[in-house]
Specification:
343 residues; mainly alpha; Farnesyl Diphosphate Synthase; two-stranded antiparallel sheet; two-stranded antiparallel ribbon
């Protein structure tokens, strides 16, 4: 018989605590033991007889980051009443797929900085980065098999296919100032939100959740991932390089028409539209300060942030099906964090 989740406000390590004061760090503390196990799985599963594979994989996984995706998996599993250990493997699978996409993305985009450090392709070259990305990606599928669930395999096979399609769609949108808001959202769903959605869904599947709860958790992940990406696109024009861990204006330099730009193109003056169109077409950040000013004056950042808050609210609405627990409150906090973060 599956144990129920602890009562709301209770944590085995610290007892009861006021949920309204819960922070992102509190969420991580709530599942501290789970996250430690996820790290152990990651280190163990990355091991290879090929030294260069170990070096690059360790470099990218050990370079920091929020680990939001594996955190999402373990919290959703616990919120759904799961008391086993396979959620650590599932969380590592999600992190491996994310890592593989980072390695490939940085090559495609020609990125030189990620999380405040040189990208793997900058250190070891494009060839090694792509091949190790393939290794990490294929290792994730080996790990999926160990879960012995065709439903989980089906969810993850579909998700990875959608992510690949998202990469191609983004490539098609590059340097195209006529990219619509609809096309933009299709890209961020496939490239970013789909992995969040899949992570939350397989966590529910591991917990043996009902179809209704499984669908709700998938919706939670989808809306959380969308909110997270929208905020990322705001921060590309509003943060600073030290906080963001990458160079400001990187998206524009790659010719990516993100939502703040799309909105400014739709609502700006003729002069602003000409400037933004030319910059997207050329992938130029020579006038980044002017473009940032145009985005701000047209309300592009506020508009994008408003849609991010709407997505976070939809994520919180989706978890209403769950029984009250500290883990359910943690899911609310993750939604708040997605839109309140500054890096």
């Amino acid at each position: 018989m599956r144990q129920l989740a602890p009562p709301i406000g209770y944590h085995s390590r610290v007892g009861y605590f006021p949920l309204e004061s819960m922070s992102f760090e509190s969420v991580k503390a709530l599942v501290e033991d789970d996250l430690r196990q996820v790290d152990a799985v990651i280190r163990n599963r990355l091991a290879s007889d090929v030294v260069l594979v170990n070096q690059i994989a360790e470099y990218i996984v050990g370079s920091g980051g929020k680990r939001l995706r594996p955190l999402l998996v373990v919290v959703v599993a616990r919120a759904c009443g799961y008391r086993g250990a396979q959620h650590s493997e599932a969380a590592a699978i999600i992190e491996f797929i994310h890592t593989a996409t980072l390695l490939h993305d940085d090559v495609v985009d020609g990125s030189k900085l990620r999380r405040g450090r040189d990208t793997a392709n900058e250190v070891w070259g494009n060839e090694a980065s792509v091949l190790v990305g393939d290794y990490v990606y294929s290792r994730s599928f080996e790990m999926m098999v160990s879960l012995e669930s065709m439903r989980i395999m089906a969810v993850m096979a579909s998700a990875t296919n959608k992510i690949a399609e998202g990469e191609v769609l983004q490539l098609l949108n590059a340097n195209d100032p006529d990219t619509t808001e609809e096309r933009y959202f299709e890209v961020i769903y496939r490239k970013t939100a789909k992995l969040f959605e899949a992570g939350a869904q397989i966590a529910a599947l591991l917990a043996g959740a009902s179809p209704a709860v499984e669908a709700a958790m998938a919706a939670y992940g989808r809306h959380l991932g969308t909110a997270f990406q929208l905020v990322d696109d705001v921060l590309d024009y509003q943060s600073n390089s030290a906080e963001l861990g990458k160079n400001l204006g990187d998206d524009l330099a790659e010719g990516k028409p993100t939502l703040p730009l799309i909105y400014a193109l739709r609502t700006g003056t003729e002069e602003q539209r000409v400037l933004i169109r030319r910059s997207i077409e050329e992938g130029s950040i020579d006038r980044l300060a002017d473009i940032t000013a145009a985005i701000e004056s047209t309300g592009g950042l506020a508009y994008t942030a408003r849609l991010a808050r709407r997505e976070a609210a939809l994520a919180i609405e989706a978890i209403a099906v769950l029984p009250d627990s500290a883990y359910k409150q943690a899911l609310r906090e993750l939604a708040d964090f997605a839109v309140e973060r500054t890096h």
